[in-house]
Amino acid sequence: MRLWRLTRAGHTALDGAGTVMHGGRYSPPGAPVVNFASEAGLAVLVALRYLPGNSADAPDDYVLGWTEIDVIPERVGDADGDDAIRDWVTDWLDERRSLLAAVRSHVLPEADVVLMNPLHLDAARVRPLVTRPFSFAECLHTPPMLARYSGESDALTEPASVGVHSRTLAQPSGPPPGRARIAPRPGESTH
Questions:
Q1: How many domains are contained in the chain?
Q2: Residues of the chain falling short of pLDDT 50
Q3: Can you tell me the distance from the alpha carbon of 114 to that of 104, in angstroms, rounded to the nearest whole number?
Q4: Which pLDDT score is estimated for 101?
Q5: Given this model, what pLDDT does residue 73 score?
Q6: Quick check: 56 and 139 in contact, CB under 8 A?
């Protein structure tokens, strides 16, 4: 399974050192845990929640990374709330009974936060992260088509935000060269 992390460039080691000092949402201070996301988008959303202030002012040394781990994680029940999850995770860490445990994300319930116990014997076989630079400013910029889709005028005369330049959006008279016009669905108007 491919697991994702969004972290600062100097913190890519899969040793759980950050949670030893501070703990995690589901793990106590003093216990090494590596937090992954089952989806890249969840890794971004979780990191975004912890950014102080404006995301455009975030440091520019973030990296999005992934690793492949051929293990099915234990499923952590979430019916009894965060305290019960923390208790379960604490026992799981102490017993070192499996490499991975999955908790349904509160940010995106269709995905999981996957915890790795770096003290488990199989942790030594986990490959380092494959990373690429990540910029919150580039990821969360104002889309150029926002004015059109939000019902504003097609002619932009004032910059909408930093990085958006004044321009006029021309309405095309037909399909782009080399592209066929798509027929409307039955019952749709062409105007």
A1: 1
A2: 154-186, 188-191
A3: 9
A4: 98
A5: 98
A6: no
